[in-house]
Structure formats: C-alpha cells, structure tokens
Amino acid sequence: MTATTLPTIAAPTSRFVAEPEAATRIAVETTTLSPRFYTTDVEAMNRLSADAIRPQWDALMAEFEADTNRGHFVRGADWHAELDKLEPALREELLDFMVSSLTAEFSGCILYAELRKKGVNPDLKALFGYMSRDEARHAGFINECLKEFGIHVDMGFLVKAKKYTYFSPKFILYATYLSEKIGYARYIRIFRRLEAHPENRFHPIFSKFERWCNDEYRHGEALALLMRGNPSMIGGFVNRVWMRFFQLAVYATMFVRDHARPEFHKALGVDPEVYGMEVFRIVAEVAKQVFPVRIDVDHPAFLEGLRRLQKQSARIAEIKRGGGLWGKIKAIPLQLAAGMTFVRMMFLPAKQHALPEELRVAATW
Fold first, then answer.
1. What CA–CA distances, in Å, run from 93 to 212, 273, 337?
2. Mutual angle of helices 272-286 and 169-196, in 10-degree steps
3. Kind and range of the H or E element at 67?
4. pTM, two decimal places
C-alpha cells in the first residue's frame, strides 16, 4: 500500500521533464490505474481485537520491533545508476514505475500513520506505527533515487493535494492485505529473475527488492492475523462477494498497468503476461490463510478476461490522448464495455476452502 497489452506509441515529449515539480504533478493525478490515498473509520478500526490470536500477534510484533531492514535503504558505494545509458522510452517507463511505486508506498504510510495517531487500541497503534515507518522508508528511498534524474515528489504537498477515497475498515483490510501481498509477489519475482539474469538489472534499485518485499509480506501477515482474529470481517456470503471483487480489482489493475510499460518489462527480460500470472498464483496461494474464496486464476476465462480488459483499456487511453470533450464522449462506450467485462469476470468459477488452522504462511518464493 493499498492494485492490458497497450500498443507501443511514441510520446512526443516526456512527462518527466527535468524539473522537481514534474513528478509531484503526476503523483497527484487521480486516474483509474493510479495509486490512491485512503481514509477510514478510525473508531470502528479501534474496536478490532488481537486477543484471539495473541501468541501469533506478539511474535509478529517482535519481528516488527527487530526492524531487520534498518539501514538497508541507502545508496552505498556500490550504487551505480548509469542513467545516461537508458533509452528514452525505457527511462520514461522506469520513472513512471518509480513515481507510481512511491505514491503507493506513501499512500500506505499516510493511512497507517493516521490510524496510529488517532487510534486508542494499543495493539493497533503499535502495528500501524511499525507499518507507517516501513512505508515512509520505502517512499523516501524511491524519492532519493528520483533525485538522480533531477526530479522528486514533494510528499508534503502530496498529502494536501491528493484526493482521498473513503473505505470502511473491512474494505481497507481487504484492499491493503492484497496490496501488500501482491507487492511482495511482484518484487520477489523481479528479484529472482534478475538474480538469474544480472545483465538485465538496468537500475540498482532492483537489488534492494528481496529485503524490501519482506516488509510487504510482513505487513500482509499482520493484516491477515487481524482479520482472522475478528471473524466477522471474513465470514458470510456478502463478504465472500467482496473478497472476489477486491481480488479481481487488484489483479486487473496490475495486469493493465504492467502492459502499459512494454519497454520496462522488455529490459527486465520479462513477459508481462507470464509475469502477471506468476504473481497472481503466488497471491492466490498465500490468500488461503484468510480468504475462504479465491479467484481461480488458472481458469482459461480468467486470462481471456484480463486480455479483453487490457485491449479495452488501451483503446480508451488512445482515444483520451486526443483530448477534448469529444474524446471523453467517444470513450464512454468502451468504458461501459470494460465495466461489463469486469462484471462477467466476477461470475467466473472460484475456489472455496476452509481456512487453515495455521494462520501464517511462510514466504518461500
């Protein structure tokens, strides 16, 4: 926190011009695919309890307190970012990836910091204090990397200017749990790929991903414990419907967004569709710990639906690039078609199972 094969179209100019304000303007934008800032009912969140999962909770809090990544997010003497060797299209997509990632990390920082500051539940205050610490560290590190390109995100301004979306505590837990786990899966798959093919590591930030994604995984574990310790959050038919909705929304957003960065993934030696399915399978396996219903990511119609959404999204983006009122009007039928594609995917077969007795899942990928 808490996530289409677009045609390659050469942009006449870069959105990331060498001025500090450029990245901030882009981070402030609110679109269907851009990371959002969230707020929730803090009083309702405070009523959640860790009592039913106390042994696991205390063990996890000890892991947070140990802070094994303290000092990890620094650019040391071996940091070599050869920015002048990047092709313009790759540079553009790398910057888009970094600004988007910073915004997502900072979104989590802001939400968790609010829950810590306004909370009265000591268990939750401690948890969200640790999580906001980690997310602030991640966002700050990306910002330092952006400065090498002559730009940065004004995070103080972002707090005031970015639009906030309200989610109920239950939806916050669903969305942030999935965001943290998919963040882990994305980063570990990239790290493992580059571990096997170091010649494709075109920026040193990727060398930080293994320990970085351990933070994301631990955040997800904490949110899973919180949901398992408060069964009303995950029991019943209606909750199962919402679980499917949030899973599909996170998967579809990642699939569409990743296909919008063809040069980025080409440079990594990654097929975004293959990579996406690898990530979805990891998340689906981990999510057994807390979701009694999971999207069947291996059902053929799932990938077919994602491809359709990707093509519809690509066409919408192409039309909107023309700008103006007519462009917005022309995009409406496609937006409705994309919405119907998403709705149809909600009715695809899902996997259901009893929740396991063991609450935590080891990060073995």
1. 21, 17, 27
2. 130
3. none
4. 0.91
